[in-house]
Amino acid sequence: MPVTGEHGTIHGVLVEVLGVGVLLLGPSGVGKSECALDLILRGHRLVSDDVIHLERRGAETVLGAGDELTRHHMEIRGLGIINIRDLFGLMAAVDRKKVELVIRIEEWDSKKEYDRLGVDDSRFEILGVSLPTLLIPVSPGRNLATIVEVSVRNHLLKTQGVFSARGLVERQGRRAGGGGPKE
Questions:
Q1: Contact assessment for residue 57 and residue 103, using Cβ atoms and an 8 Å cutoff
Q2: Residue 170 belongs to a domain with what CATH number?
Q3: pLDDT tens by residue, 87-122
Q4: 183 lies in a domain?
Q5: How many CB atoms lie within 10 A of CB 85?
Q6: Which residues contact 46 (CB under 8 A, 6 or more apart)?
Q7: Who's near 133: CB < 8 A, 6+ residues apart?
Q8: Count of domains in the chain?
């Protein structure tokens, strides 16, 4: 579902996690809003639930904001519409945020092979800007908010040049090829 042009609208949830704008995408009912609510309870912030207005600024920046009418609101199935600022205070929501990471959420498919090492550099294009993306399969018992939060921490490490998974794979390769630990 790539969005093209200077402006666009996408369905998903945009949250700020550890200062990083994270766009959660996935089919209706997969748990995006519930994940965002759990993240808000952990001190992170909502930008927009359901409808996200996007604007490209320059060659590498996409800003996301909520619709003026529904800003600071979320729909939680079984609970209804809630106002995040009323429930959690002014700091629980922000009006706009730069999108820096895209996390696609889908139902776990046992026939599908998922990345287990984390060495791939997958990208998702929005408004002509290529953004890092992860595909997270969900199934009962997986704590999606924890996985998203750890994904952001790992993303921050990567922006600083620390690639934990690649380092481990390289060390394993040296050990297998050299007959023993090198470090």
A1: no
A2: 3.40.50.300
A3: 999 999 999 999 999 999 999 888 887 776 666 789
A4: no
A5: 14
A6: 13, 14, 15, 16, 36, 40, 72, 74, 84, 92, 93, 94
A7: 101, 102, 103, 104, 122, 123, 124
A8: 1
Residue 172, both tokens = 């394993």
DSSP state for residue 53 in the 8-state scheme = E
Catalytic center residues: 11, 32, 50, 116
In a domain, 1, yes or no: no
Q: Which residue has the tokens 């060659």?
A: 59
Is the overall model pTM greater than 0.85, yes or no?
A: yes
Alpha-carbon dihedral angle through residues 92, 95, 99, 102, given to the nearest 10 degrees: 50
pLDDT tens figures, 150-166: 999 999 999 998 877 77
Residue 155 within any structural domain of the chain: yes
Tens of pLDDT along 21-34?
999 999 998 999 99
- Using alpha carbons, select from 5, 20, 8 the residue that is nearest to residue 103: 20
